[in-house]
Automatic annotation (TrEMBL):
Gene3D superfamilies: YVTN repeat-like/Quinoprotein amine dehydrogenase (2.130.10.10). The lineage of its organism: Eukaryota, Fungi, Dikarya, Ascomycota, Pezizomycotina. This is Lactonase, 7-bladed beta-propeller-domain-containing protein. Belongs to the cycloisomerase 2 family. It comes from Corynascus novoguineensis. Keywords: Signal. SUPFAM superfamilies: C-terminal (heme d1) domain of cytochrome cd1-nitrite reductase. InterPro entries: Cycloisomerase_2, Haem_d1_sf, Lactonase_7-beta_prop, WD40/YVTN_repeat-like_dom_sf.
Length: 402
């Protein structure tokens, strides 16, 4: 633009103000109409990266892509770039892909890089979001990448942790980092390790994106299987909650930041995933845990319970696993059970909230179904299903387009 710097600035600022609302939709119900879903293969088929759109009470598949390999799972969005991992079951490594999100529901691969085997979760970290950490379940390690240029993924470091030496069977015969989580200060990456019964702690250098290993939290009963977790801050207090998949427990911790750049976790809550001590059905396996946006409500998913029912669109009632919600006391971190709502079928491996917490998307891996529910952000309660869709393969992740 051939103008003075000041004028150019004023014009571009005005342009952004004038066009922001129509281009972005203004409120988030425009973007909450589109979901990105990954599926695992069933039989001989390959898994897909799907784009689903709400159309009345249906979730329609409007895009289908194989740009994330045959075993796609966790997705992390960053503007118009989507980071997707290929678990590559049975392979000696996994893959990280950076994909450009096109407006016509296709994805263009920008870059790819190998990871340690079986990547299942990614998180962006570091100044200006230039780093990305990966939790590698099958291979028992983690990777860090420089993603400053999403078209040139640059590996910083891959680590494989030693296997536990106490002779337990799979999955506790190996380290199994299951989720990459950034703490609220952005200074620490933590990884619940389902195989080694630990919370691994890394102190990151936000500028160089490198890290230092800090002592893990290890005070778990062997066989807990820490899988997924989330931080919650209130005033100057920090709490951490996690689900243990193998023991089906929900645990809460007070987190202390120490002067030597380590983290201390002190457990104050330990119940089953329903918040009580009742035995859960044989085969139950806790999966996901999130704290809803801008709220003090925690929701987790529990698989293979068939403890509830859900009526699908054709009127048939099918067995359902629960999404279990708790409120968090901001003073003490204490949890109070709020609701056990149907997840919409069996095996809700993943669910997520839209940005204002008015909707929940649930991926029912065993039923080949994705369901969007309404949610009341004030009470934390999940309401009726507003849309559902059947997909080929086994949906393992569902996230609202940002
Ligand atoms: C979006 O939100 C507005 C205002 O809340 C509402 O009138 C409209 O029906 C919503 N649109 C969709 C597609 O949900
Ligand atoms: C979708 O958009 C991309 C990027 O603009 C383009 O390369 C591709 O050809 C389009 N595909 C279809 C089917 O229109
Ligand atoms: C209704 O949907 C369920 C679940 O997808 C399916 O198992 C059942 O066969 C369907 N029933 C009819 C009558 O279409």
């Amino acid at each position: 633009m051939r103008t003075s710097h000041g004028v150019a600035f004023a014009l571009s600022a005005g342009f952004r103000l004038a066009t922001a609302a129509p281009v972005c939709g203004g409120n988030n119900n425009g973007t909450a109409d589109v979901l990105y879903v990954t599926t695992y293969p069933v039989g001989e088929g390959a898994g897909k990266l799907l784009t689903l759109q709400l159309a009345g009470s249906k979730l329609q598949v409007v895009g289908e892509s194989d740009t994330c390999g045959p075993y796609p799972s966790w997705l992390t969005q960053d503007g118009d770039v989507l980071y997707c991992v290929n678990e590559a079951w049975g392979g000696d490594h996994g893959d990280l892909y950076s994909l450009k999100i096109n407006s016509n529901y296709t994805f263009t691969k920008l870059s790819e890089h190998e990871t340690v085997g079986g990547p299942v979760s990614t998180i962006i970290y570091g100044n200006d979001g230039r780093g990305l950490a990966v939790a590698d379940y099958a291979g028992g390690g983690i990777d860090t990448f420089n993603i400053e240029d999403p078209a040139a993924l640059e590996l910083i470091k891959s680590v494989v942790y030693p296997a536990p030496d106490d002779g337990l069977p799979d999955p506790q015969n190996s380290a199994r980092p299951h989720e990459a989580i950034l703490d609220p200060t952005g200074e620490f990456l933590v990884f619940p390790d389902l195989g080694a019964d630990q919370i691994r702690v890394l102190k990151v250098n936000k500028e160089t994106l490198e890290y230092e290993e800090k002592p893990s939290y290890t005070d778990f009963e062997r066989g807990t299987g820490p899988r997924h977790g989330a931080f919650f801050t209130s005033g100057d207090k920090t709490f951490f909650y996690l689900v243990g998949e193998l023991a089906n427990v929900l645990q809460g911790f007070t987190v202390t930041y120490n002067d030597d750049d380590s983290l201390t976790f002190e457990r104050f809550h330990n119940s089953n995933t329903h918040g009580d001590d009742e035995p859960l059905p044989e085969g139950t396996a806790a999966a996901e845990l999130w704290i809803a946006p801008e709220s003090n409500f925690l929701t987790l998913s529990s698989r293979f319970e068939s403890s509830l029912e859900f009526t699908v669109a054709n009127g048939t009632t099918v067995p359902s696993d629960p999404l279990v919600t708790f409120s968090i006391d901001p003073e003490t971190g204490a949890l109070t059970h709020v609701q056990s709502a149907p997840a919409g079928g069996i095996n809700p491996r993943h669910f997520s909230f839209n940005s204002d917490g008015t909707r929940v998307a649930s991926a029912l891996q065993s039923d080949g179904r994705v369901v969007v529910f309404e949610r009341d952000p004030a009470t934390g309660k999940i309401g009726k299903a507003i849309a559902e869709g059947d997909v080929e393969g086994s949906p393992n992740f569902a996230t609202f387009k940002q």
